[in-house]
Amino acid sequence: MSTSTPYVLILFYSRHGATRAMAEAMAAGVESEPGIDARLRTVPPVSATCEAIDSDIPADGPVYASLDDLRHCTGLAIGSPTRFGNMAAPLKYFLDSSSELWMNGALVDKPASAFTSTASLHGGQETTLMTMLIPLLHHGMVLSGLPYSETELFTTTTGGTPYGATHLAGQRSNRSLDEQERNLCIAQGRRLARLSLALGTMREET
Questions:
Q1: Taking the complete model, does pTM exceed 0.85, yes or no?
Q2: Which end of the chain is more exposed for a tag (fewer CB within 10 A), N or C?
Q3: Over the chain, what is the mean pLDDT?
């Protein structure tokens, strides 16, 4: 990936792999648009007894995010499984560390969106999305959801909201993305890529 190519940062935490699968589908949507890349990054678990419990590089999958990944992105998608209707602590811990970017206005006018996976159908999908979007509003980001022009929103019986893509992972967290859920993730990534390019041009002109 060229350092000069704008990118959408897809930042996620995934315990059993469902949120990671959504992130990968969203990345496919981003990269279906010419002129922009997707950068997949995750965050480490957190511990109540010590701050550093993992090595700097995870055993598999995307590497851990840095503040520079966030600082230099053209757009942002964040994803988390639900924890009692809220984002998971590891993702919140990372966002809580971004006050330096808030003070510098590094993310102002950049588009952002959220996605989530839950074990049960009414397990807090929409409230989890909203908890992820609130800190992005504080950063001055421009929020992007899923419009109903994505017709899978009318027909899905598992995941998908106008606030962002969702997935029903099942009680054992082993249900794969179905076609509608995957298509909505791809559509959200594609829309975020287009907005990132358009808003990036606007920022350059001002």
A1: yes
A2: C
A3: 92
